[in-house]
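# nightly structure sweep
# worker-07 picked up a monomer target from the shared queue
# config: single-sequence mode, recycle default, output format = structure tokens
# input follows
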Amino acid sequence: MKLRLQTEREMEIQKKLRAETETALQLLEKSVHEKQDSIIALRKQLEELKEANLKTQAQLKSSKETHQRDSLKVRNLEGKLAQTTAHCKRIERELEDKKNQLKQSESTSSDLAKKLEEVQLAKSKAEGDLAIEKQWRGSLQSELQKEKDRVVSLTNENRNFRALKKEHAELLEKHACAQETVSEQEIALVEMGKQLSKSKQQVIDMREASSQQVWVDEKEVNGCQLCDAPFSVARRKHHCRNCGGVFCNGCSDNNMQLAVSSKPVRVCDGCYRNLLERNS
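# output follows
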């Protein structure tokens, strides 16, 4: 009768251990699934960040092309402005020369009374030339006004170019922030991968422990399975909660928390060393 009760108690203990093992396995599998969902969400965020980065690079490339075109226009207009300025200076020098010639002609006409008619003809010709020069000067002044208007337009374009340059700097700053965020997400993915590998290894260890554990019947064992010391009233039998073997107190005086238990339980010396090596 006592043996039967003891056997029933041991069977109940084994059932409880199996129930605890299954519960722990379910909790670990649930945790693995949750971490996998987290990894999927992080990968989705990483793809979105990469897409935003590509858009930013496209905008940056467009800004650079616009900047190159505007720079080319500015150089061309500056060249035209320099040519127009040189042309105006040359015309002013010619006009000054004409004025000097006119003065010389007037001084010569006062001294040369006999050649009055020739001087008058020369004067008329000079006045005609002067009228042409005035007309030419008027056209040059209108062209100069047009060039001034172009300079104003170039100034406005230069202002727009500075605004584009500022926007370009802001885009570069956003691009750097996006790259930093991508790096942080990649580090988080690596950490999640390590935790997932560790959880999978724990599930494998628990499954191996539950499949390898064989509870030895203490009736069939007369001596310690480690030191072969015979059991007696003073030397009692103890089961190792990891391998299921029967050992004396000296060979199983170790407590360690197993994957199938929520608190430290008795294990033999051999299992204690193996578990320590595995955990380290």
